[in-house]
Design brief:
The protein has 654 residues and is an alpha+beta fold. Among the domains are: 418-474; 482-650, Histidine kinase-like ATPase, C-terminal domain (Heat Shock Protein 90). 49% of the residues lie in helices and 20% in strands. It contains 15 helices and 18 strands. The strands form four sheets. Strands 12, 14, 15, 16, 17 and 18 form a six-stranded mixed sheet that branches. Strands 2-1-5-4-3 form a five-stranded antiparallel sheet. Helix 10 (317-331) packs parallel to helix 11 (347-441) and helix 11 (347-441) runs antiparallel to helix 12. The longest helix has 95 residues, at 347-441. The N and C termini lie far apart (112 Å). 24% of the residues are buried.
């Protein structure tokens, strides 16, 4: 009897079954779990994006309203309101309405609530003055607080906001009245429309009030915000106006199977709410795509696993062990001395050959990855350095812009103050001259009267000096540079400076008499300020030291020193700050003018000081090489410059 042929393939089938059960079942569960996690993560990210957009719009809304409140606050501090002059107040209000077209109406009420000035864009002719005494904006503003509220619709259509600010009367004094403005909020709807031009892709709104009685301030569809019909779905109003948190969001059911992803954020200090929504299908589009991609990958993994299981099941134990040992070595990162594998002429041999090729390729790729990691680390460090450098440059540019904006504001204020104060001072001077002339003709001036007249003249001169300092610092005229020999220029300046008898002048000038390009008037003002400061700190006796020296890398240093008490270390960092002073009388602009002049000349000012021995201010200026064979120059003047060694990175450091 012939032996029954052995059935083939049982081991392969068993191996395939257990391999699929052990490997694919956990993989399927983990994969399904990962799909859920990925989908929830993407949904959460979509909601966070919506919340970020809502928070951004809340800041834009707060800044939009704050801008008009600041305009009214600045207006009530103008001279017309300070002097309570109706004509000047009308001019100031007219200027505010020209600068901000959103103001629909501006009104000034006296402390009794009676309207004294009114300006508007759509006022009826000869309309009667109103009484604001019992109205909330007037009541709050008279307590010294700004009022922002009173939402209404202008002409029954356009959203409008009421802002009221007190008119200050002085320290610890009640306000002398209230400035009330009505602002159109149509600009907010336009901002929202610019961000959401198509309703199918999303929409946004700004809402005030509660779920039962709310006011639609703005909407990305401006037509909804204009008119009394402006409203939101009840589900949306309930979702955003009944929340106690300042921001949030989630899915909102609008009914009839329509779902949206909505987010809201409260507007700071106003109590309004910014609401942003997006169709649920748009918000979760990435999540659905991610789900389909993961499913396709899992199906591909299952198919690959089936093929791999059939291949592995056909191998015998020994080659598999050899492959296992080699794989363990590769896992440990040992690419050398792999176990010897028999390359049979079948699938196992092919697998062994593939494994050898894989190990070689893995070794090569690992080396490439290590090299790439090193390069990436190096590029990362270089990128960090560049980002830090650009950040510093951006901060410096921002600081410079803020400084220029402040200087422009100071310049505008200084022009107004200088004009308005100098006129009365001139009248006072003329009156003093007339009084002295009149009293001289009538038989002489009483010594006490003459002394008081001298005091008035001195104070007027001091006031004019303060105005000159403020105007000098705040105005930026075009520089008129000249090439000068610095020693000769300093000698001329010192020869005409009115030094007091108790001050000794010591000069130490470089014999090379360097040439610099400067604006003589500006530099003269800077040097005179330093000399004047030195004399002020030496009321009894002292010495002013003036010197020049040619420095390395093409710079000239001017030294202006004194033998006074020195500068305290705790204020050394503040001495060049505008309006900072330790004097009983003074503007604090003397050293600020010096720093401004040196910045405009491309140089720098430093100071060295020692308690009890005085201070020395060092002015660094670029050195100029005179042109060879140029035309002869006047005394103190230099020939036109041939080269000018002016490099900021070579500037001597203090």
């Amino acid at each position: 009897m012939e032996p029954k042929p052995k059935s083939r393939g049982k081991l392969a089938y068993k191996f395939l079954f257990w391999f699929l059960l052990v490997s694919l079942a956990p993989m399927g569960l983990v994969g399904w779990h990962l799909i859920g996690i990925s989908q929830e993560t993407l949904k959460s990210e979509s909601l966070r994006n919506q919340q970020s957009i809502a928070s951004g719009f809340s800041e834009v809304t707060a800044n939009f309203v704050s801008k008009f409140q600041n305009s009214l606050t600045i207006a009530v501090r103008l001279e017309g309101f300070a002097k309570d002059e109706r004509g000047a107040q009308e001019r100031d209000l007219n200027r505010v309405m020209q600068q901000s077209p959103e103001f629909l109406e501006l009104a000034v009420a006296d402390p009794r609530g009676k309207e004294v000035v009114r300006m508007g864009r759509y006022l009826a002719a000869e309309s009667e003055m109103r009484d604001f005494y019992d109205q909330l904006p007037f009541t709050i503003a008279m307590k010294g607080q700004a009022y922002v509220g009173g939402l209404a619709r202008f002409q029954g259509l356009y959203p409008m906001l009421t802002i009221a600010v007190p008119i200050p009367a002085g320290p610890n004094a009640p306000p002398k009245g209230v400035l009330i403005g009505k602002v159109s909020l149509s600009g907010l709807s336009q901002n929202l429309k610019d961000e959401f031009p198509e309703k199918e892709k999303g929409e946004a709104a700004v809402v005030a009030g509660d779920a039962r009685d709310f006011f639609l301030v703005a909407h990305s569809d401006p037509g909804l915000a204009y008119g009394t019909s402006g409203t939101l779905p009840q589900a949306v109003a309930k979702a955003i106006l009944t929340q106690s948190s300042k921001r949030g969001g989630g899915e909102i059911d609008l009914g009839e199977g329509r779902l949206v992803l909505g987010a809201f954020a409260e507007v700071k200090d106003l109590g309004w709410v910014v609401y942003v929504q997006q169709p649920i299908e748009n918000a979760y589009l990435a999540a659905r795509q991610m789900k389909y991609q993961v499913l396709r990958v899992l199906l591909g993994v299952v198919a690959a696993t089936l093929l791999l299981s059939l291949a592995v099941a056909g191998h015998i134990i020994q080659p598999i062990k050899a492959l296992q040992q080699a794989a363990e070595r590769l896992t440990a990162g040992q690419f050398e001395d792999l176990p010897e594998m028999t390359l049979t002429n079948d699938e196992i041999g092919d697998l062994a050959q593939s494994f050898i090729q894989m190990s070689d390729s893995l070794k090569e790729k690992t080396g490439e990855l290590l090299h790439a990691k090193e390069e990436l680390t190096k590029y990362g460090r270089d990128l960090e350095r560049r980002v830090e450098s650009r950040t510093r440059e951006l901060k410096a540019a921002q600081d410079e812009l803020i400084k220029k904006e402040r200087l422009a504001a100071i310049g505008q204020m200084a022009s107004v103050v200088g004009h308005e104060i100098r006129n009365p001072l001139a009248v006072i001077n003329n009156s003093i001259f007339f009084i002295k002339t009149k009293m001289g003709k009538e038989g002489g001036v009483d010594p006490k009267v003459e002394r008081h007249i001298s005091i008035i003249q001195s104070e007027v001169k001091q006031a004019n000096s303060i105005i000159d300092e403020i105007l000098t610092y705040s105005r930026s005229r075009e520089m008129k540079p000249e090439a000068l020999r610095v020693n000769h220029w300093l000698e001329e300046l010192l020869s005409v400076y009115p030094f007091p008898p108790h001050i000794h002048v010591a000069k130490k000038l470089d014999t090379r008499d360097p040439v610099v390009v400067i604006d003589p008037d500006e530099m003269k003002q800077a040097v005179r300020n330093l000399i004047g400061n030195g004399i002020e700190v030496m009321p009894q006796q002292g010495s002013v030291r003036v010197g020049t020296e040619v420095m390395e890398k093409g710079w000239v240093r001017l030294d202006i020193g004194d033998t006074g008490p020195g500068i305290p270390p705790e204020i050394l960092d503040k001495i060049f700050t505008p309006f900072y002073t330790t004097k009983a009388r003074g503007t604090g602009l003397g050293l600020a003018v010096v720093k401004k002049v040196m910045d405009r000349h491309g140089g720098r000012v430093d100071v060295t000081t020692e308690a009890g021995r005085g201070s020395v201010f060092h002015l660094f200026l670029p050195l100029v090489t005179p042109a060879v064979g140029g035309p002869a120059a006047a005394p103190g003047q230099a020939a036109l410059p041939q080269t000018m060694t002016r490099r900021a990175d070579d500037l001597p450091r203090g």
